[in-house]
Amino acid sequence: MAKKKKKNKLGAKAIFARILVVILVTAIGGVASFFGFKTYFASKFKKDKKAEIAKQLKEESKEKVDVGMIQTGNSIVIRIYHNRNQEMIFVPLRQDMTLKLTKSGKKAVKETLGTNVSKATVADVIKATKEDGALMKKQVENTLGITINSYELLSRKKFVTLINKAGDIKVEFDQAMSYTDSTDKYVTLNEGENSLNGTAVYSLMSETDIFEDKNQQAELTGEICVAVALNDKSLSEYKEYAQEYFDAVDSDGSYENVESYLKRIRQIKDKNLNFKVLDGTESNGKFKLDTDEAKRVFDEMLSEDGDLSSALSSSTTEAKKTTESSLSSKNQDLQEDGKINCQVMDIQWVLLKHTERDH
Predict the structure, then answer these.
(1) Which of 7, 187, 189, 248 is 20 to 30 Å from the Cα of 26, by its Cα?
(2) Could you tell me if 69 and 150 are in contact, meaning their C-beta atoms sit under 8 angstroms apart?
(3) What's the pLDDT at 84?
(4) CA dist 163 to 170, 199, 353, Å?
(5) Strands (DSSP E) along the chain, which ranges?
(6) Using CA atoms, how far apart are residues 251 and 1, in angstroms rounded to an integer?
(7) What strand order describes the sheet that includes 273-275?
(8) What does the pLDDT look like over 20-29, one tens digit per residue?
């Protein structure tokens, strides 16, 4: 007969041990499952949070108003870019405009020009600060009461090269003009449209002795800036040019700072590219800024919801020469030369037109 197999009987201790093992395995599995569950949702939360932050940053970037300061030679232009509205405004500063100096600015002017003053013209401050863009930026900020995000300094050689690479810069002139450029070459520009190369642009914007009327030079600088900003480059070409620009400038900004905006900047419509020459008064060969009007203009320009059309419109305060001695001497010279005062000519012209209309 075959032996009967003995049934293994489990004692109470063995049963308890097995139950304990099951409980431990279940518990460990449960804990692992819990942490896995938690890790999954924590990771998902982080990703969702990152996506939310990225979305917010993208929305905020659409509202961005960026202010830059471009300097080459004796020319300084403030560039204001509204990302949301895709508008760009250039504010050329007159070379004879007086800047309110900071403590470091006063020191630089005293050391370079030998004068202990609290104010100095743009041209003189450029000489004093030399190639210190950060110091120059502080003087402009102190005068205009604005914050400038970055400065961009360009030497004559690099500026000319960049302008030549930008293509034909076409500017219209009300009348013909002649001047000696920065290379001592005599240049004549015709009435009407002219194509300007880099050397011509640099001379017209920067040279101090070409224009007696500094307001006229500032307006021409604004027109040139708008003409340069107009482009027919592809996006890849535009990005390449922007990279070359930032490689050439001495700046506290970088290509990476603007790279994400280049597509929208390139798409700015012609009508949204403008310039504004600030208003003020002339006296003794210097231009005093109308600070109240400048504040109004910049408040509009730098506000995300600002009225840019109002900021760009002509102010009731126009640049005027207020030195009485200067005016009287000029009037006296005109009378001695037998010339007719312009105001009299205007009146005669109006009377003549009325007479013709009556006939």
Answers:
(1) 7
(2) yes
(3) 86
(4) 12, 8, 46
(5) 65-72, 75-82, 87-93, 98-100, 119-121, 150-154, 169-173, 177-180, 186-189, 192-196, 250-251, 273-275, 280-283, 286-289, 320-321
(6) 104
(7) 250-251, 150-154, 65-72, 75-82, 87-93, 273-275
(8) 444 344 444 4
